[in-house]
């Protein structure tokens, strides 16, 4: 019989981070980090258990240690009422625990020469640690209405911990200032490798299109400094910087991964549906006279109810939790779930689910994926 123990230890980053260690007979076999963070979904903010840096020592793999560790972390989070969990997943692993990919990836590629044509009207300087609260507030204002975004707590946000490469390269940050010295925009980029072919910008927010232009121009200057001919902005298309980029000669790409990348698990589907109740009730108006009194959704991780206020009898739908995550985060319509995942849904099920939760593009900026 294995003597397997799990410990939750303080993290160098402080609360809400924790270091998790699994030992067998006193030997470290698996480790990961976890934290709690607010996560936006259709106008509500849900507590989310972040899962990062999951690892089992080579000599101890395929013995169930990671399963034990992850399930213990999830159970503890659920016991505290944390209704969702997110992670950035390697392919083909996390569907076992009902994690689903629910966000497209976006990037805009522009030549340094093209971006250099813009005018820089704002002073741009390197961000200092003291700037973090102002940057977090600006980010919250700009992204508060977008599903998939984290909440950056102004007094606690530690700045960007990474760009695209999970610790391989540090991220750096620059801020744009107005005439009064107030922060009106910022850019987060990947540290540039000596053989880099491009400069990757992993988060950029601007409070006006003029600020967006200044930031893009500043990034062109940064690229010139590093002798790099291409800029790649990994930004949300509807953000100010995304909207500005679409006016330039850019290549815009979007990708819709499955079973990898940024993934979400509805750990407590009932709590998630309860939080979305007012949203669903408002949307239910489009069902007109076909509106049921309420909708009950049963998943393998629990059930939830949405009061819809109609005169027709209660409607009941059965869905795997991962598929419900795709619907709630707007990644797939109910119709698409039938086509892509062969989920069994009736015409009426699809009609109701698609009326309540229309497809949207959720997004999480790279520095928040940890
Ligand atoms: C991925 C990793 C953490 C798995 O650890 P582990 O302790 O060997 O995993 P477990 O033995 O608990 O296996 C749990 C389940 O995952 C499956 N699994 C394990 N490694 C897998 C992998 N690399 N890809 C896909 N499935 C995997 C197992 O078959 C098992 O499935 P089952 O319970 O349905 O039979 C380990 O291989 C590792 O550290 N890899 C390198 C780092 C990494 O990729 N981490 C993930 C970052 S998102």
Q: What does this protein look like?
A:
The structure is a single chain. The protein is 26% helix and 31% strand. The strands form three sheets. Strands 1-2-3-4-5-14-6 form a seven-stranded mixed beta sheet, sandwiched between helices. Strands 8-9-10-11-12-7-13 form a seven-stranded mixed beta sheet. Strands 16-15-17 form a three-stranded mixed beta sheet. The chain starts with a strand and ends in a 14-residue tail after the last helix. Strand 2 and strand 3 form a beta hairpin. The mean pLDDT is 95. The chain is built from ten helices and 17 strands. It has helices at residues 65-79, 112-116, 132-143, 209-225, 240-245, 269-275, 277-283, 321-328, 334-341, 347-356, and strands spanning 4-10, 18-24, 27-41, 44-56, 84-89, 100-101, 105-111, 123-126, 171-177, 183-190, 199-206, 230-233, 250-255, 261-266, 294-299, 302-307, 315-318. The structure holds coenzyme A. Residues 30, 54-56, 61-67, 89-90, 92-93, 96 line the site of coenzyme A.
Helix content: 25-40%
Poorly predicted residue ranges: none
Q: Architecture of the largest domain, according to CATH?
A: 3-Layer(aba) Sandwich
CATH topology of the largest domain: Aminopeptidase
C-alpha termini separation: 36 Å
Q: Record the strand order, biggest sheet.
A: 1-2-3-4-5-14-6
| CATH classification class of the largest domain | Alpha Beta
Tell me the domain tally.
3
> What's the mean pLDDT score?
95
Structural class designation: alpha+beta
What is the number of E strands?
A: 17
How big a fraction of the residues is strand?
Answer: 25-35%
> For the CA atoms, what is the radius of gyration?
22 Å
Fourth-level CATH superfamily of the largest domain: Gcn5-related N-acetyltransferase (GNAT)
Ligand roster: coenzyme A
**Shape call:** globular
Order of H and E elements: EEEEHEEEHEHEEEHEHEEHHEEEHHH
Q: How many helix segments?
A: 10
Largest sheet: 7 strands, mixed
């Amino acid at each position: 019989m294995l003597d397997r123990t799990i410990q939750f230890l303080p993290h160098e980053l402080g609360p809400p981070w924790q270091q998790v260690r699994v030992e067998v007979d006193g030997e470290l076999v698996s480790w990961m980090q976890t934290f709690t963070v607010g996560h936006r979904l259709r106008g509500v903010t849900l507590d989310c258990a972040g899962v990062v840096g999951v690892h089992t020592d080579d000599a101890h793999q395929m013995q169930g240690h990671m399963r034990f560790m992850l399930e213990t972390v999830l159970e503890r989070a659920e016991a505290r009422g944390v209704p969702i969990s997110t992670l950035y997943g390697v392919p083909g692993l996390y569907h076992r625990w009902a994690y689903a990919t629910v966000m497209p990836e976006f990037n805009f590629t522009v030549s340094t020469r093209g971006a250099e044509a813009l005018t820089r009207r704002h002073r741009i300087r390197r961000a200092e640690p003291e700037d973090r609260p102002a940057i977090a507030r600006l980010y919250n204002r700009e992204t508060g209405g977008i599903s998939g975004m984290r909440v950056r707590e102004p007094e606690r946000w530690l700045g960007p911990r990474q760009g695209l490469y999970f610790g391989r390269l540090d991220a750096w940050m620059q801020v744009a200032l107005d005439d009064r010295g107030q922060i009106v925009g910022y850019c987060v980029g990947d540290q540039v490798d000596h053989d880099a072919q491009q400069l990757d910008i992993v988060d950029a927010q601007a409070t006006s299109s003029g600020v967006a232009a200044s930031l893009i121009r500043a990034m062109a200057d940064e690229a010139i400094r590093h002798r790099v001919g291409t800029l790649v902005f990994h930004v949300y298309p509807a953000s100010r910087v995304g909207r500005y980029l679409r006016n330039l000669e850019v290549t815009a790409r979007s990708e819709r991964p499955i079973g990898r990348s940024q993934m979400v698990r509805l750990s407590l589907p009932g709590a998630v549906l309860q939080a979305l109740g007012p949203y669903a009730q408002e949307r239910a108006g489009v069902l007109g006279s076909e509106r049921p009194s309420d909708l009950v959704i049963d998943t393998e991780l629990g059930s939830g109810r949405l009061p819809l206020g109609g005169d027709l009898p209660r409607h009941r739908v059965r869905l795997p939790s991962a598929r419900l995550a795709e619907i709630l985060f707007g990644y797939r319509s109910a119709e698409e779930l039938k086509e892509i995942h062969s989920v069994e849904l009736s015409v009426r099920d699809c009609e109701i689910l698609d009326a309540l939760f229309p497809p949207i593009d959720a997004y999480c900026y790279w520095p928040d994926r940890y």
